[in-house]
Structures are given as structure tokens and as C-alpha cells.
Amino acid sequence: MIFIKKYGASASLVLLFIIAWELGARIVNLGFILPTPTDVLRKLWELKEPLFLEHLPATLLIIGIGLMLSIVCGVGLAVWMSVNRTVEKTFYPLMISSQTIPIIALAPIFVLWFGYSIWSKVVVTVLITFFPITVNTYDGLKATSKEYRELLLTMGASKKDLFFKLQVPGSAPHFFSGLKVAVTMSVIGAAIGEWIGAQAGLGYFSRRMMTQFDGAGVFAPIIILSAVGILLFVSVSLLEKRTLKWRKSE
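RE: above sequence
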């Protein structure tokens, strides 16, 4: 009952969309352009072994490495900018400028630099996921309450105490907000990298199916990518609730 109350409207909208898609695709009857959802599910079942045993692990590896690098480097840079005004003035404008460059235009350059290895796809993923993690964490570190800061200072707190007892807990919700954006974007980054140049992966498989004019084959890995993004988002949300139990008490 709780699930129906919370997600009933969204589930109903998705169901209506799938029904409309099924009926519209049957009327158009151009499977190589617009396959029906049942055709996509059938193709997904037929190709389950190469998709789930070969291409899905390759994509998950790219996502995992990209997210790990973004978290480590993004949080590190956010902390550095929060304690050093010069670093903030140097790197913050560069991060903003980097978001104006279309990643799809840079992906072929990374293929030239790194070849068809995993690192060309990892770099694309990092570029997409680095920004939300860094900016949200930095905003959280800078948004700590002045009243709490002054209170801790009057109690003899050191800079180390202020950082670990005030800034880190205060910035945690911001970090998780950025991470929830980053995990969904990481799927897009990995798919873009694989689409441009790869030898395995769900994005690569979708592009290969497109060259064969197999509409259902193009959509099948996209369904898996969408499911991966949803599972990653839900996982981060559950981790946030478990880690930040004090927010419920507030």
C-alpha cells in the first residue's frame, strides 16, 4: 500500500506510455525504426548471454572506475577550494567553463589519445560526473552555520575540530545530492564513450545493432543501461538514509 501511494502515479504514467508505444509501433509497423516493447523484450531475452555476460560487465567496470576517480578527486578538490581562496579562484571558473564544452565532441579526441582501451571511456565518464560531486560538496562545506562555528570556537575548537565535527557532517547531504546526480550521469558517460569507440560494452552493442538496422537490438541495451542507472540511484539513496540517520530525527 505504501508503494502504491508513493509511486502509483508514476507507475501508471509509465504503463500508459508503454501501452501507447506498443499500439503506435504496431500501427506504424516499422520495426527497424520503432520496435514494439514486446519486440525489445524478446530481443533482450534472445541476446541475454552476450549482453549480460560480456557487455554489461564492461560497462559496469567503466562506471565503477569513473565514479571512484570522480569521488576521490572531486571531494579532494572541494575540500582544497574550501580552505584556500586562491585555489577556489583558480579552479572554480575552470570547472564551470568545462561544462560548456560538449562531451560528445571531446570523446573522439580521447579515443585518439587513449585508443580503444577502457581509459578513453573512463575519461568521458569522469568529465561528466566530476562536476556535480565537486560543486555540491564544495557548496556544503561553505554553507556551514556561522552560529555553530562561533559556538565551537568559543568552546576552544581547533580548525581540525571545525572541519570534522561541523563541515563534514554539514556537507554530507550536499555530497549525496551530487552523488545521486553523478551516478545517473555516469551511465550516460560510459555509453557515450562506448558509442564513439569501443570493443565491448552496452553502448558499443547498441551502435553495432544500429548498423544492422535492428531497432529492437538498439533498444535492448538501452533498457539495461536505464535499469543500471535506476539501481545506482536507489543504492545511493539507501546509503544516504543509512548514513544520515540524524536527518530523520530533525
